[in-house]
Amino acid sequence: MTDVVDRRMLEALICPVTHQTLRYDAARDELISENANLAYPIRNGIPVMLVDEARKLD
Fold it and tell me: What's the half-sphere exposure (Cβ side, CA atoms, 13 Å) at 5?
């Protein structure tokens, strides 16, 4: 993933729900919003920042 997506871009992305920074989970290739309890997928190197596409965390 780091080869495809620029780290600076990832650092600039924020959660569309909480407007807070996200944590990158390399194992699952997702961006995690701890406060919203959501994981946004990264598909083909592109972060999908849609709430409807996010996975709910347990």
Answer: 20
* C-alpha closest to that of 16 among 58, 57, 54: 54
Would you give the distance in Å from CA 22 to the centre of its chain? 6
Q: Count of CB atoms within 10 A of residue 44's CB? A: 7
Q: Which domains does the chain have, with CATH numbers?
A: 7-56 (2.20.25.10)
Q: Helix or strand or coil: residue 39?
A: strand
pLDDT tens digits for range 8-17: 777 789 999 9
| Contact of 13 with 47, CB cutoff 8 Å | yes
Provide the whole-model pTM. 0.85
